[in-house]
Structures are given as structure tokens and as C-alpha cells.
Amino acid sequence: MMMYDDKPREACGLFGVHGHTDAAKLTYFGLYALQHRGQESAGITVCQDKHIVGHKGMGLVSDVFSMKHLEQLVGTSAVGHVRYSTTGSSILTNAQPFFVRHQKRSYAVAHNGNLVNAHILKDELEQSGSIFQTTMDSEVFLHLFVKNLNHGFEGALMETVKRLKGAYSFVLLTSEGEVIGILDPDHLALTGEQHEGIGPLQPLDGFHQGPFEPVAQVFDEKMQEDLAVHGGLENGARLLQFVF
Description:
Helices cover 27% and strands 26% of the residues. By secondary structure, the chain is an alpha+beta fold. Helix 5 (137-147) packs across helix 6.
């Protein structure tokens, strides 16, 4: 018989900011608004002088981060994560965002969902020499991405996503300050069911902020409300649209 507890259970929450001097603090508020998505661990990484630095820990957002932590995370691009484990143990090693260094560049990824072929991809990567530090699907994505960098940055993303199967969403931060959102082709990680895509994000200048919450429309009233309360929208941020 399957046992259920009465703890709040949703799924992981992802948040990304690009082009704002208080990126880490805004990401903190975003994760605070997304706390219902996961209560096991929380983490934020920023791009700082062409390097990725971060802080993460077990517990709630307000327990993991102090003002001192946020003041040390200086940068204009950031990604954050709150975790409810769907794969991998609930330990600090598996807290996200997860980051790697490769050929003088760094990459950090936060992930929600499940890759149903992760074990196949992991076996393939280990056979070619990859060494894994965690039991997370997120690390499989990063290893595969790095392996495909011979196709160039955008080509590597395209080749990697072609190999993934399942319901997933990722937000990727690079040491160049780029922030990229990735969603499974059927958009299952967004709504739990397939629906018509909203379309590509148009290149815009200035400050962008993205809460990755499973909503069927571009704007979710509750998310906008939460971000306004916790400091996101009052700083000029707006949810633009999801990238398919």
C-alpha cells in the first residue's frame, strides 16, 4: 500500500534574471514566491566577472540565505532553484543549481521534471569517460551539453535537447552572463498536458525576469501577485513569455 504524508508537495521551482544589478536579490524573492514548489533545498548562482559563483543549502529559502549571502552574490545575471526531489536523494550534493567548468567557461543549470531516458544517457556518457558527482538528471543534461559543444553553443543546446525524453524544463546560466530557458517539446513540464506554444521570445534590451511556474498562459495572476508582494515587479520586471 502506498503511503502519503501531509507535507506540501509540488515540484521544483526555477527562476532566472538577466540584466539587473540586484539579480541575486530578485532571484531570492522569486524563489520565495515559488517556495511551494519545493522545500528540500534552495540555491542561487550568479555570473560574476566571467565566473559562476553561488550558494545553496538544505531547507527553506529564508533559512538558506541571509543578507550576507545575497550581498556576496554580485552580478547582473542569476538563476535559482527550490527542490522537491523527483530523482536523486534529498542531500546537499543534489541541491541545485548544479554547475561545471569546461574549457575556461562555466555553466550552471537548474532543472524541473524527469528525463525518462536519463539512465541510458548516463551509461553512454560514462562509457565515453564522463564522471558524475550526483544522481540528478540535471547533471546528465550538462555532461551531454558539454560533449556537444563542438557544434557551437547554440548547436550544442539543439543537439542536447534532441536526445532528451520526458517532461522537463531547464534554466541555464553561462559565465558570459547568458540565461537560457529550455522546455520539453510537448510542454508537459509547463502544464502537465500538451498545448499550443506561445512562440519564441523576441530579443529585447534591458532587464528580463522569468519565473518558471506551471501555468497555461503567459501571465499567471497569482505569480504576478506574489512577485509584486516580494519585490519582483515593483523593480520593473515583467514575465515576458515562455520559450518553446
